[in-house]
Automatic annotation (TrEMBL), chains A, B:
Residues annotated as domain HTH tetR-type: 5-64
A molecular function GO annotation: DNA-binding transcription factor activity
Pfam assignment, any one: TetR_N
InterPro entries per record: Homeodomain-like_sf (IPR009057), HTH-type_TetR-like_transc_reg (IPR050109), HTH_TetR (IPR001647), Tet_transcr_reg_TetR-rel_C_sf (IPR036271)
DNA-binding region: 27-46
Superkingdom in the source lineage: Bacteria
Name this protein carries in UniProt: Transcriptional regulator, TetR family
Species whose genome carries this gene: Microbispora rosea
Keyword entries, A-Z: DNA-binding
Tagged with keyword DNA-binding: yes
Amino acid sequence: MTTRPGPRERLLDAARELTYSQGVQVGVDAILKQADVARRSLYQHFGGKDGLVAEVLRSDGGLDRYRQVMNEAGDDPRERVLAVFDELDAITSQPAFRGCRYTAAELTLTDPAHPAHAEVRAFKEGLHRLMAAELTRHGHPAPDAGADQLLVLIDGVLAHAVTRPGARPALAARALAEAVLAASK
Amino acid sequence: MTTRPGPRERLLDAARELTYSQGVQVGVDAILKQADVARRSLYQHFGGKDGLVAEVLRSDGGLDRYRQVMNEAGDDPRERVLAVFDELDAITSQPAFRGCRYTAAELTLTDPAHPAHAEVRAFKEGLHRLMAAELTRHGHPAPDAGADQLLVLIDGVLAHAVTRPGARPALAARALAEAVLAASK
DNA sequence: AATTAGATAGACCGATTGATCTACTGTCAA
DNA sequence: TTGACAGTAGATCAATCGGTCTATCTAATT
């Protein structure tokens, strides 16, 4: 039989799911209930709700998913970048799609002192490095600026898909990503 | 001496400011205090907090601001579209910038029944029509698809600027907007 | 002058929030 | 056997939430 994970993992799993489907405003009680964990364990492991939310973002592995999608697309930088937008089209078409978890956290948590903000920034910086590396391999004359453009496109797709469900923004963005790639020599 | 606006206007002004600076999670009490209005007036005029929030979005005049920026740029559709991104660069560079109020509302308010969602959608649709009209005048072969691209860029700029303050995403997006315009015959 | 509608002030409500606390249980190692 | 420790269960806390209520005041209408 499968041993179920410890309280810490169960808390992270429950929080990851509920803070996405219901937003970070979800109550601690709901998380505790779904995790089937004692109240005290939460404060023992994460210090409080804020710490739990931050750890959810930190341990989310969002960057790994981007890497995986690109790796499955092969070696060609161009194909690897475009594969990201194909994947975005699939993600944003799912009924359970509720936007980018990082952007949502950033916009929802107004308090600048919230530990989640640092995690959001770290994620975006990591994604920027990821994209810049691809553009460098592709011979792009300004990989940093190009990565900025790709990030705008990615964030734009994830933000826009929430408000206009039928728009398929990833397809629109994919064509612009090709324009970014076309800047290479 | 200037007669101060009625309770309804004061409520809208206070709510517009506070829901932006502190998010829609801001308490009713804070809005009432800043508006210097009796509690009852809020429920008399708007039925509740949800109604007030929705009316803030509806009466925000965000579309008018886009129109004004484009009108100030003259008649040429190309200049009018690019002026939008110049303006976005200015807006996102302000210290008080806290993201797109509509996107934030959409991501924060999880309840699908919240009346704000309809206002968000109406705004984005209006913006889409605005951009499509410019592309049509510019001779774009597919104004609707082109407007989709411009909206992704706009949403991307507003979303990305929140998480990476120094990135100047509007400048990156402006170059891509030129690519959209270049599709015209 | 009488009536009426809108606004104000503020008490009050039940529900929920995040967090702390005590008491108890099970496990493993010394 | 003892002790340490992590986890559980649940009472409890103060604060805050959105919303309803009564009572009073004011200004325009009739």
